[in-house]
Design brief:
With about 500 residues, the chain is α+β, with helices and mostly antiparallel strands. The radius of gyration is 23 Å and the shape is globular. The longest helix is centred in the first third of the chain and has 10 residues. The protein has one domain. The termini are far apart.
Length: about 500
């Protein structure tokens, strides 16, 4: 990586452009060829924000969602995560584009009765039942469940593969094993799913951290809102609608009836920072290099596969939408296997991005794509962080979500759905939103549309104050102030959410 400064800065633009494109696309669902074959390790969204639950302002919440587009009625096996996979949340706390702290999640799914499962006496013979439940469910590790889902968490400091790892423990009993709630099968099986799931929120002790944290892993309603089918059909929407700010909720959210599986942690900010208030974060999933399918599996749970060999990263997600709408199709699997420190290899997708031109074509708006190449306004905003907001003291440009842990959270009701962009437009006090981290309420689709079409360069004359400088040339951002009106006609701010941890709403049940 010769000419490191130029390569590093521009390599991160894919993230920025992806986010901008995000205004026109969904977050990361089925974004690369290989990941469509292994949905259990497909990361859909990554959130990182200063906790806005009352009394928790000194904590940071990180949320990694996996397994997209879950239909609530998807039985009889539903959506358990993969016991042969490694799910990770990485934190960079010194700006060098390398993980300094990693939370590793491993899952185990076992049959009841020591692997024998639940059986019924049928005509004098003991016969195993075909469902994952034998009756109503209300307790942790309920005896009515035939499949018992558990997980453990390891904290690794330094390199994710060579650093030392220690187990996160349950603050109540010291256990290193945590129970995961079964998915929301339906009202008859689980009458009070919200109450049942709440029993799986754990207070935990994190090695190397003097303050306890919280953990929840389980199914949630997909918190992302987007006009999904319409967008991927070459933005099949009237320009008059998506440029009218009064119509931000004109179209239904196509993800409103979908669930996801959430890995969520709340960690005191002192446990994440290291001499700098700004941290970076991203999530990955890895699988074993070798996979052997048994043509004659024995009785048991998931006995058809044997995995071994080194871990191979197959999914990566920091900023929303990067791999989905910025990286070229031929390199999508390569991006999912890459690390932030190697983002220079994707420089062509940054210096000459195709998304603005595609939007120009799809919307039949000639000569509207910005031409201020290289797009350093996006690099600053989305890849290095904004100076004075969420840029580390020493930063290596790379694709990850960056959060200033010293900026106070804003209560949910007062949050601006457009994050910092909305703050600039309204002259408000909400610097706690995207791209300074990402909250569930932040409308990253609309924010990204504004950014991709050069709107941040026209932010009420604040381009210089935000550190864009010469990167913003008014003659090269044709839409100018008009870009602030762009949206996807789906309002992220109306998605139902919880007021406190784990913040994401109770999943949709299989039956009403």
């Amino acid at each position: 990586m010769k000419n490191r400064s130029r390569t590093g800065r521009l390599a991160l633009v894919p993230l920025a452009l992806a986010m901008m494109a995000g205004g026109a696309m969904a977050s990361s669902h089925r974004e690369a060829p290989f990941i469509t074959t292994v949905p259990k390790v497909d990361a859909t969204d990554f959130y990182m924000f200063n906790s806005y639950e009352a009394g928790r302002a000194d904590y940071v919440t990180v949320i990694a969602n996996y397994l997209p587009l879950q239909d609530a009625y998807g039985g009889p096996n539903y959506f358990a995560l993969d016991p042969n996979a490694l799910y990770e949340i990485h934190i960079d706390n010194n700006g060098d584009a390398k993980e300094d702290l990693t939370f590793q999640f491993r899952f185990k799914n076992t049959l009841a009765a020591n692997g024998a499962g639940v059986s019924l006496n049928i005509g004098g013979k003991s016969v195993g039942i075909p469902l994952i439940q034998a009756g109503a469910v209300s307790m942790v590790n309920d005896p009515s469940l035939q499949v018992h889902e558990t997980f453990d968490i390891t904290v690794v400091r330094g390199d994710r593969r060579t650093g030392g790892g220690k187990a996160v423990t349950n603050a109540a009993n010291g256990s290193t094993t945590f129970d995961k709630p079964v998915d929301n099968i339906g009202k008859k099986t689980i009458a009070d799913y919200a109450g049942y799931a709440a029993k799986h929120v754990y207070n935990v002790n994190i090695p190397g951290c003097s303050m306890p944290g919280k953990v929840f892993v389980g199914q949630r309603q997909d918190p992302f809102a987007v006009n999904l089918g319409t967008i991927f059909d070459l933005v099949n929407a009237p320009v008059a609608v998506i440029t009218d700010p009064t119509l931000i909720g004109a179209a239904p959210n196509t993800l409103a009836d979908k669930n996801v599986t959430t890995l969520s942690m709340e960690v005191h900010k002192s446990c994440l920072t290291n001499g700098d208030d700004v941290i970076g974060g991203w999530t990955t999933a890895s699988m074993r290099q070798a996979r052997l399918l048994n043509p004659s599996p024995a009785s048991g749970h998931q006995a058809s596969e044997k995995a071994g060999g080194a871990w191979v990263q197959v999914s990566r997600l920091g900023m929303p939408l990067v791999n989905e709408v910025v990286i070229g199709l031929k390199d999508k699997d390569k991006f999912n296997a890459s690390k932030p420190s190697g983002d220079g290899q994707f420089i062509d997708y940054v210096t000459n991005p195709t998304l603005p031109a595609l939007l120009e074509i799809a919307l039949a708006l000639p000569n509207t794509a910005p031409t201020n190449f290289p797009r350093n306004d996006l690099v600053t905003t989305f890849l290095t962080g904004i100076k004075g907001v969420n840029q580390p003291k020493n930063v290596t440009p790379s694709e990850m979500l960056r959060l200033n842990t010293a900026i106070p959270p804003v209560a949910f009701a007062q949050q601006n759905r457009l994050g910092i962009v909305g703050n600039i437009l309204a002259g408000g006090m909400d610097n706690a939103g995207f791209p300074n981290g990402r909250r569930p309420k932040d409308d990253v689709v609309d924010i990204s549309l504004v950014a991709v079409m050069g709107g941040l360069c026209m932010a009420n004359g604040n381009a210089d104050a935000l550190g864009f400088g010469a990167a913003c040339k008014p003659s090269a951002v044709p839409l100018g102030a008009t870009s602030f009106k762009l949206h996807d006609a789906v309002d992220q701010a109306v998605v139902p959410l919880l007021a406190g941890f784990p913040y994401l709403n109770t999943p949709i049940p299989g039956t009403k």
